[in-house]
Amino acid sequence: MSVLQVTCPACKTTSNVVATMTNVRCPQCGAVFNARTPVQAAPAGQAQANPASTNADDDDADSSDWSQYAPVIAGIVGLCLLMLILVGASIAMSRSKPAAVDPVTEDTAMDAAKSDEPEFRVVNLPESTRRTIYHDYRRLAGSSIDKKVPLQKDAPARQKLDKVLNQIVDREITHFALNYGISEDDVRQIVAEGDAKQWSINSSQRSVEALPTQ
Fold first, then answer.
1. How much is the mean pLDDT over the chain?
2. Are 36 and 7 spatial neighbours (Cβ–Cβ below 8 Å)?
3. Distance CA 55, CA 61 (A)
């Protein structure tokens, strides 16, 4: 059996091995090398350092991956903060604004206020005198313009009749104005007042109450 003397490339220890062996383990440092070409064997220290370098490369890869996602995550966080700020500002503005008035409710209130206002002007005459003028006018109107006529409104005969009756009422209004020293508009205001206060109904009720009981 022939013996071959080899030198460990890692620790430079010389040892004798069988010449037929190819791979040899150094008895001193444990490095494995080729007995035929010992220069290609890797030192034990270098072999042990390779895992550390691999781990370092993995750490570098992980940190590089994190650095790629960091801007995206920062953008998402910033967007969430912006949304929270906008929501808070809108809530604060809604609390500070006065309650909106419903247009329908406002119109209804205005109509009610208008309905409460009198639709006539009180003429400067005693109420008893105004009532007399009103009742005289209503008697005149009841026998003329307020009287039911068996004619169609769009019939020529009905239109002529209405024109004549209106002229009669206008002349009587002028007569009332001259008789009581007021204007024709005052007479019309008295009629409007009597209609609003329902003087005709009240007068009829008083007349019924005044009838003698049997």
1. 75
2. no
3. 10
Tokens for 155, please give them.
């019939």
Name all contacts of 38-41 with Cβ < 8 Å and 24+ positions apart.
38/6, 38/7, 38/8, 38/9, 39/9, 41/8, 41/9, 41/10
Query: d(Cα 86, Cα 110) in Å, to the nearest integer?
Result: 38
Q: Are strands 14-18 and 23-25 parallel, antiparallel or unpaired?
A: unpaired
State the DSSP H helix or E strand holding residue 25, giving kind and residue range, or none if neither.
strand 23-25
The residues with which 15 forms a beta bridge, in sequence order, are 6
d(CA 91, CA 82): 14
Q: Where are the domains of the chain?
A: 3-46, 123-210
Q: What pLDDT was estimated at residue 129?
A: 93
CA angle 197, 202, 205 (to 5 degrees): 165
**Residue 162 amino acid letter:** D
**Most confidently modeled of 18-27, 62-71, 159-168, 201-210?**
159-168
How far is the C-alpha of 195 from the C-alpha of 135, rounded, in Å? 10
Per the listing, tokens 């444990």 go with 30
**Tokens matching residue 24:** 């040899």
Token pair for 43: 């030192």
Two structure tokens written together for 27: 């008895």
Residue 157 has pLDDT above 90, yes or no: no
User: Distance between alpha carbon 1 and the CA centroid of its chain, in Å?
Assistant: 102
